[in-house]
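pinned: reference chain
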Amino acid sequence: MQLSREALLRAYRQMKLIREFEERLHVEIQTGEIAGFTHLYSGQEAVAVGVCEHLTVEDKIVSTHRGHGHCLAKGCDVNGMMKEIWGSREGLCKGKGGSMHIADVEQGMLGANGIVGAGAPIAVGAALSAKIDGNGRVSIAFSGDGACNQGTTFEAMNLAVVTQAPAIFVFENNHYSEHTGVDYAVGTAGDIASRAEAFGMKVWRADGTDFFAVHDTMRELLDYVRAGNGPAAVEFDTERFFGHFEGDPQRYRGPGELDRIREERNCLMKFRASVTGAKLLDHADLDAVDDEVMASIEAAVAAARAAERPTPEDVLADVYISY
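pinned: its C-alpha cells
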C-alpha cells in the first residue's frame, strides 16, 4: 500500500527525531550533566517507527534499556523525555525514571526496563487485558537479541500462546548482546525468530534498516493478530551505531565495521534514496524536516537545562499508590 505524502513526511520526521535525539545525547553525556547509564538507539530507528506508525494510543508497548526510540515513536513528548533524562522533576516520570525507565501510560508506553527480558511478561499481561476487553488492541514487547536467551522471554511467549493473547514479540537483532556476537550467543545459529516459532506462533522476518520493509511486515502481522489468531513474533535485522552503553570502547567490533554500517545500513539514507528516487518527496521536503527536527532538539536541550531540579522531599513522593 502506497503511503500518502503526509504519512511519508511523518515517518521521516519520527526517524530523524530519534536519530538527532540520540546523537545529541551522545554529545551531552560527555559534559557530565546527565547521570546514570545511557544506551542509545541510533541506527535502529526504522524498527521503532515502522512498528509504531500502525498503533493507536490504546495499543500498548513495553521497551528495553535501549528505549528512547520506542518512546518517541509511540508519541512521548520530546521535551518531557529530555527533561527526564536530565533528572528534572518536570520530566515524564518526574526525574525518577531517567534514561532506562521512561514511561508514559497515557501514550500506551508502559515503560522502558533496565532488566533484559523483563518487558515481555508485562506486555503479555497487557495483551491479556486487551483480550478480555475485546477491543481489538494489541500489546508489543520490544526486545533485543540478548533478551531471546532469557527465561522470562520464553515463559512470556509460552503464556501468550497458551492463552492466545494478542501479544507481539518484536526482536531487534542488532548483532550484539552487550559485547557478544549473536552468532555465538544464540544457539539457533543466530536465528531468533525460529525460537518463537517453536512455541507455536507465526513468525515474520524483515530487514530492520528498511522502513518500508518494517512497515509492510507489521501491517501484515498486525492484521493477523488483530483478527484473533493469537500472538506472533518478528525478527528485524538491524544495527546499532553506538556501543552497548555510552562509554563502551567497542573492542568487539571489526576494523571499519562502524563506518560500513553507517554508510550501508543507515535507515535514514535508505529512506531518502527510496522516496526521492520514486519522486514521492524531494530533497527540499526532507531538508525542511531536518531543520525542524534540529530546532526541536535544541529547544528540548535548553528546556531540560533550565528545568526545575528535584527537591529532597521529592524522594518520598509517588512511592506508594493510595487506593
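why pinned: The domain at 5-304 is CATH 3.40.50.970 (Rossmann fold). The longest strand covers residues 167-173.
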